[in-house]
Amino acid sequence: MSERRVTPRSEDYSRWYTDVVLKAELADYSPVKGCMVIRPYGYTLWENIQAALDRRFKDTGHVNAYFPLLIPLSFIQREAQHVEGFAPELAIVTHGGGEKLEEPLVVRPTSETIIGHMYSQWVRSYRDLPVLINQWANVVRWEMRTRLFLRTTEFLWQEGHTAHATQAEAEEETRRMLDVYTDFAVNEAAIPVIKGKKSEREKFAGAVASYTIEAMMGNGWALQSATSHFLGQNFARAFDIKFLNRSNELDYAWTTSWGLSTRMVGAIIMAHGDDQGLIVPPRLAPIQAVIVPIWRKDAERTIVLEHAGQLAGVLKESGIRVKLDDRDELSAGFKFNDWEMRGVPLRIEIGPRDVEQNAVVLARRDITGKEGKTFGVPMGGVVEAVREMLSTIQATMLRRATEFRVANTRTVQTYAEFKEVLDSQGGFLRAYWAGSNEDEDRIKDETKATIRCFPSDESESRGTCFYTAQPAGQVAIFARVF
After folding, report:
1. Which pLDDT belongs to residue 80?
2. Which of 337, 455, 321, 345 is nearest to 395 (CA)?
3. Does domain 409-479 have CATH number 3.40.120.10?
4. How many CA atoms lie within 13 A of 206 on its CB side?
5. Whole-angstrom Cα distance, residue 273 to residue 366?
6. Residue ranges of the alpha helices (H) in 218-283?
7. What residues contact 445, with CB distance under 8 A and at least 6 apart?
8. Strand duo 463-464 + 209-216: pairing
9. From the centroid of its chain, how far is CA 274?
10. What is the DSSP letter of 39?
11. What is the reported pLDDT for 4?
């Protein structure tokens, strides 16, 4: 093992990322190639993500359900664009119980098809609509090149699937859920995202239109963090989701789907982490504050641990997720480094002198060294001080990430400038776009940059396309991606 705790980001960003995932004990490699084992610390982070999202889903009228992992192959084949888009990634079961199956079964890559089938059984009248269902599940997509959390053969996610009586209602739902994801990313994950529409080349297989939130990672690359799809009547026609409308006429439902996965864990790592490891936003942190008792003599140990234990109880009762690190065999310095690696937002130090003064030291994870420390915090005011500091850390992380994105977003006017800026500075490139699908493909082949989205807040922009020099009615954000 290298003496360095993690590979510096400036040396090898991909290696740094993997080092952090492994050394912070978020996940580990599975004996099945391309899969991962999510360790307890990483899974708790995912549970906190789940809770924050699930609350938002239910506040907007959605309910949870569960649909089978195995889907008849014929279902996948009913929607032409859908099967074409997913064919290379399908895992197919051909045998079960020692016998060949009459029909192969696909291990769920996404659930539009089987949910569409069930909706066709449940929907008969406009009175049955809308159907607003979400499921928390695992999916399997046979990836050739995998990376922990970001792209694995099996991953965890939520997928919402809704059916509506009108096109307007379905389109409104698509945009509403994109706003829900944006609110979560900004206010829980402290990640400023750009929301917008995907290009035809990048949209979901079988969708009429796809929308996304795009986040900038610490190396300037983009990460698609969540998507929301307006499916029109494509899947309703494929699965015969019909209903009697208000005019007593038979009509097809309008459907949507939307999802966010464990990739968000990777987004948090790369948007906030540094060369010491993770920095986790307090609102999602598995442990918000860690108490590290410090002593040199055995005679000091008992009194320090007693005070530390009492403090842990008080913080826990106040609703703060706290951990008391009372490991005897490890030095305080080792513990500091260990919890820094794990990204715990706040460290509380208490030693013999602090006990005498009935006070503690607070150390922020987002600011290293003495600048991040507050000395002499009175024990009686610790709960309030911790709450205030966690709130400050959350706000600071969002501000920093926003400033970083702004500083690394550049407008380009020509393709020559596009290539020069991309290679020399990277980040997000903002440009007017009037190109074709083929133009988009050529840019991707030549630069490895893709259209991440057409930003919603610039939908009325007019200018000259940087690639074709033709009048353009939209702005595109280009970037290289993880």
Report:
1. 63
2. 345
3. no
4. 27
5. 9
6. 234-239, 263-272
7. none
8. unpaired
9. 18
10. P
11. 56
CATH code for the part of the protein at 13-272: 3.30.930.10
Q: What is the pLDDT of residues 26-69, one digit of tens each?
A: 999 999 989 999 999 999 999 999 999 999 999 999 999 999 99
Distance from C-alpha of 14 to C-alpha of 221, rounded to nearest angstrom = 12
pLDDT given for residue 435 in this prediction: 97
Please name which of 244, 16, 51 lies closest in space to residue 136, comparing C-alpha atoms: 51
CB 190 within 8 A of CB 401: yes
Task: Convert 358-392 into a string of H (helix), E (strand) and C (coil).
Answer: CEEEEEECCCCCHHHEEEEEEHHHHHHHHHHHHHH
The total number of residues written for the chain in this structure: 482
**What string of H, E and C letters represents the secondary structure of 181-225?**
HHHHHHHCCCCCEEEEECCCCCCCCCCCEEEEEEEECCCCCEEEE
Catalogue the E-assigned strands of 97-144. Answer: 99-107, 131-140
Per DSSP, the three-state class of 139 is strand
pLDDT above 70 for 83: no
**Would you call the peptide bond into 68 cis, given omega within 30 degrees of 0 as the criterion?**
no
Q: What is the DSSP letter of 276?
A: T
Distances (CA, A) of 164 to 169, 231, 465: 6, 11, 37
242-276 tens-digit pLDDT: 999 999 999 999 999 999 999 999 999 999 999 99
Q: What is the pLDDT of residues 132-141, one digit of tens each?
A: 999 999 999 9
- State residue 1's pLDDT score: 35
| Nearest alpha-carbon partner for 5 in 251, 253, 274 | 274
Domain ranges of the chain: 13-272, 289-390, 409-479
Q: Give CATH for domain 289-390.
A: 3.40.50.800
